[in-house]
Specification:
Number of strands: 17
Structural class: alpha+beta
Mean pLDDT: 93
CATH class of the largest domain: Alpha Beta
CATH topology of the largest domain: 2,3-Dihydroxybiphenyl 1,2-Dioxygenase, domain 1
Shape: globular
Number of helices: 9
Strand content: 25-35%
CATH architecture of the largest domain: Roll
Distance between the termini: 26 Å
Order of helices and strands: EHEEEHEHEEEEEHEEEHEHHHEEEH
Bound molecules: fe (ii) ion
Length: 376
């Protein structure tokens, strides 16, 4: 049966044992952080913020911190083999290692989650320099991915101790990317519900939306998804698992190439998706395209929208509506050679959902890409 429950985000944060202020940063382990930083700056309009490496006393890695409005990415590469970062890249290729979450009390976040069954990645650790102190702690989630809780209320430095300011003469203009809207995890067969339970039990999240294989299937392939949200709705983690179809699920392709579970996409909000996507395309970002026939009937489905349809059609931006409003969204092609991590760009105009009405057109577009790779 096809089920979509209405978004029901609790207003009651008093009972929230893990209050989160949002995403602090997303850290990717990559094969070449210097070049990756240049790519994300050039293509997406991030700014240089901070650097850590041998020059700052960190001997095993180099990390570049880049930022655009409320989005912070850390791009980290190992400087030698035989360490956890190098092993991660050997196994997964470039990908998201850390989804870091902003908290008031990282020690309490660790106690609250580990006593509920969370597996420790990092015990509470205080880092200090002349700008104050940052407390970090962390737990494991699906695959080799981790959550780090970041407490920075007593810190006024550029990023955190161990990093120095990264001044660059190269500062591409912003593309209007504002904040992380949601981060989606792909998990293995029959693993969606166990991870839903993890986010419920260990982190106090609620399942706000569910999509089964009837919602998310084409003639050939299928997946299932449940959206987990924290109490104030600032942090949303949809969890996907593959479902049986005539051909291979896109989630299965991801699992094959990422060599396990991991972050499938990071959705980034903009206040003007037409301007943002125009700039991204000019800078070489490639997006999935649905057939132009999508636009012949889309307004019959979603009703009135404020934007002209023509630029949405030119850019390939998708539209969907729920009972609270509508949203505009588009999905990039994978950001690396493996068909693994990609970005979604989303503009919400009241809607709190995830574009269910676009799933079929979108997944047919994805299947064409899968087929071109020989993985359908
Ligand atoms: Fe998404």
């Amino acid at each position: 049966m096809s089920v979509e429950t209405a978004p029901a985000i609790s207003e009651n944060t008093l009972a929230d044992f893990l209050p989160l202020h949002g995403t602090d940063y997303v850290e990717l382990y990559v094969g070449n952080a210097k070049q990756a930083a240049h790519f994300y700056k050039t293509a997406f309009g991030f700014q240089s913020i901070a650097y850590a490496g041998p020059e700052t006393g960190v001997m095993d890695r180099a990390s570049y911190v880049i930022r655009q409005n409320k989005i912070t990415f850390v791009l980290t590469t190992p400087l030698k083999t035989n360490n956890a970062i190098a092993d991660h890249i050997y196994k997964h290729g470039d990908g998201v290692k850390v989804l870091a979450l902003m908290v008031d009390d990282a020690t309490d976040a660790w106690h609250q989650t580990t006593k509920r069954g969370g597996k420790t990645y990092m015990e509470p650790t205080t880092l200090k320099d002349e700008h104050g102190s940052v407390v970090l702690s962390g737990i494991h989630t699906y695959g080799d991915t981790v959550h780090i809780f970041v407490e920075r209320k007593n810190y006024n430095g550029i990023f955190m101790p161990g990093f120095r300011k990264w001044e660059s003469h190269y500062n591409p203009t912003s593309t209007g990317l504002l904040y992380v809207d949601h981060c989606v995890g792909n998990v293995g067969w029959n693993q969606m519900n166990p991870w839903v339970k993890f986010y419920e039990d260990v982190m106090g999240f609620k399942n706000i939306l569910s999509f089964d294989d009837k919602d998310i299937s084409t003639e050939y392939s299928a997946l299932m998804s449940k959206v987990m949200s924290n109490g104030n709705g600032f942090v949303k983690f949809p969890i996907n698992e593959p479902a049986e179809g005539k051909k291979k699920s896109q989630v299965e392709e991801y699992l094959d190439f990422y060599n396990g579970e991991g972050v499938q996409h990071v959705a980034i909000a903009t206040a003007n998706i037409i301007e943002t996507v125009t700039m991204l395309q000019e800078r070489g970002v490639e997006f999935l395209k649905v057939p132009t026939s999508y636009y012949d009937t889309v307004l019959d489905r979603v009703g009135h929208i404020d934007e002209d349809l023509a630029p949405l059609k030119d850019l390939g931006i998708l539209i969907d509506r729920d009972n609270e409003g509508y949203l505009l969204q588009i999905f990039s092609k994978p950001l690396e050679d493996r068909p693994t991590l990609f970005f979604e760009i989303i503009q919400r105009k009241g809607a709190k959902s995830f574009g269910k009405g676009n799933f079929k057109a979108l997944f047919e577009a994805l299947e064409r890409e899968q087929e071109a790779r020989g993985n359908l």
